[in-house]
Design goal:
Blueprint (H helix, E strand, L loop, with lengths): L1 E5 L3 H12 L3 E6 L15 E4 L6 H11 L2 E4 L6 H11 L3 E4 L5 H17 L4 E8 L9 H10 L6 E4 L11 E8 L5 E9 L2 E9 L3 H14 L5 E3 L1 H5 L5
Parallel strand pairs: 1-2, 1-3, 3-4, 4-5, 5-11, 6-8, 7-8
Antiparallel strand pairs: 6-9, 9-10
Helix pairs in contact: 1-6, 2-3, 4-5
InterPro entries: DapB_C, DapB_N, DapB_N_CS, DHDPR_bac, NAD(P)-bd_dom_sf
Catalytic activity: (S)-2,3,4,5-tetrahydrodipicolinate + NAD(+) + H2O = (2S,4S)-4-hydroxy-2,3,4,5-tetrahydrodipicolinate + NADH + H(+); (S)-2,3,4,5-tetrahydrodipicolinate + NADP(+) + H2O = (2S,4S)-4-hydroxy-2,3,4,5-tetrahydrodipicolinate + NADPH + H(+)
Keywords: Amino-acid biosynthesis, Cytoplasm, Diaminopimelate biosynthesis, Lysine biosynthesis, NAD, NADP, Oxidoreductase
């Protein structure tokens, strides 16, 4: 496939290198600083981007103008930007995930089974850890996990605790740790009476996200317009 990679940072460079090793043609790495290069390129089959939300406008314009597909993973989107992706998916194939790790995708499916069985008798806490350069907190993956834990707003979401907080209420604690070069860890604790369950996914290298995004790109090729995600890649959304 002919790809345009969003972003020129570490992840963009890793995406380019891996895509080329897989036999794809990378036309360019593009962000808001070099948009003029788009006028010099042949049309891409797909854009792969999880760089920064500021790139979303030109990406949507390009997809519409060149009738290509999009694999998107940037987090920290506001409600309007999420709505833009949904609108785009009505006319083009769009694959969106806050996390392209295959292991995290399985983790979230496990959570869909565990939470309904445990939420009424166990206290739930969510902890995520990332490198010291990550811009948003909680992470997009943590927010996606939290949606599984609290789909109907049944629990109060408490972001960190300090001071005289009193006894625990009907709540889920959400905690974000930042430091070093940590690629990403997400842990959900279920605390019961005299027992506990802990489910953790730990990423040791960012390569797993690149591999997952390019697997998604290969899967998306030739698909009709629609909004797809990791459950589709796993096959759990099949009828």
């Amino acid at each position: 496939m002919k790809l345009i990679i969003g972003g020129q940072g570490k992840m963009g460079s890793l995406l380019k290198e891996t895509a080329q090793n897989l036999g794809h043609t990378v036309l360019a790495n593009v962000d808001t600083s070099n948009l003029d290069v788009l006028d010099t390129l042949e049309s891409a089959d797909m854009i792969v981007d999880f760089s920064h939300r500021d790139n979303l406008n030109w990406i949507i314009d390009y997809v519409n103008a060149h009738d290509c597909a999009l694999v998107y993973g940037t987090t920290g989107l506001d409600a309007d930007q999420k709505a833009q992706l949904v609108t785009l998916s009505k006319t083009h194939p769009v694959f969106f995930s806050a996390n392209y790790s295959y292991g995290v995708a399985v983790f979230t499916e496990i959570m869909k089974v565990a939470v309904p069985m445990l939420k009424d008798s166990f206290d739930m806490e969510l902890v995520e850890t990332h490198h010291n350069q990550k811009a948003d907190a909680p992470s997009g993956t943590a927010k996606a996990i939290l949606e599984i834990m609290n789909p109907n707003g049944e629990f109060k979401e408490v972001y960190g605790r300090h001071g005289l907080i009193g006894p625990r209420q009907k709540e889920i604690g959400v905690h974000a740790l930042r430091g070093g070069t940590e690629a990403g860890e997400h842990t959900v604790h279920f605390f019961g009476d005299n027992e506990s369950i802990t489910i953790t996914h730990h990423a040791t290298n960012r390569q797993i996200f690149v591999n997952g995004a390019l697997k998604a790109a290969a899967w998306l090729e030739g698909k009709p317009a629609g909004l797809y995600g990791m459950p589709d890649l796993l096959g759990v959304n099949q009828a």
